C-alpha cells in the first residue's frame, strides 16, 4: 500500500530507469560525447577539438565509461600508422532519436547560455 503525503496525495516518484538514464547521460561530457559520435566515428583528438574544454584524462575516462556501458566502441586500425577511433555501438545508436528530439526541444525552448 502506498503512503499518503500530508497533502492527501500519493508521493510522486521518478521511474528508476529514467533516473539511471539521466544520471548516466547527465554526467558531465557523456551525453555530449554520444551526440558528437552521432555524426560517425572520430579519433581522440577530433573528439577533444569538437567538444572543447575537456581534458585528455577526462576524455579518456569518459570514453572508457561509455565503452564499459556498451554505448561506444574503440576501434584500432593497425596501420601503419596505428590509429584509434571511437564509434557508437548499436545501443549508442538507439539513443539517436531521443538526442535528436532533445536537441530540437533545446533549440526551441532554452535560451542560449552566456558562454555560447
TrEMBL record:
Domain HTH hxlR-type residue range list: 14-114
Stored PROSITE patterns: HTH_HXLR
Keywords: DNA-binding, Transcription, Transcription regulation
Highest taxon above the source species: Bacteria
Matches recorded under InterPro entries: HTH_HxlR, WH-like_DNA-bd_sf, WH_DNA-bd_sf
Record-linked Pfam families: HxlR (PF01638)
Protein name (database record): Helix-turn-helix domain-containing protein
Species of origin: Gordonia westfalica
Amino acid at each position: 500500500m502506498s503512503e499518503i503525503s500530508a497533502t492527501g496525495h500519493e508521493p510522486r516518484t521518478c521511474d528508476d530507469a529514467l533516473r539511471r538514464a539521466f544520471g548516466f547521460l547527465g554526467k558531465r561530457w557523456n551525453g555530449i560525447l554520444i551526440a558528437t559520435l552521432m555524426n560517425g566515428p572520430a579519433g581522440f583528438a577530433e573528439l577533444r577539438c569538437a567538444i572543447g574544454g575537456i581534458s585528455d584524462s577526462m576524455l579518456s575516462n569518459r570514453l572508457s565509461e561509455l565503452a564499459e556501458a556498451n554505448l561506444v566502441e574503440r576501434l584500432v586500425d593497425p596501420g601503419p600508422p596505428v590509429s584509434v577511433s571511437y564509434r557508437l555501438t548499436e545501443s549508442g545508436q538507439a539513443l539517436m532519436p531521443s538526442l535528436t528530439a532533445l536537441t530540437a526541444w533545446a533549440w526551441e525552448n532554452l535560451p542560449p547560455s552566456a558562454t555560447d
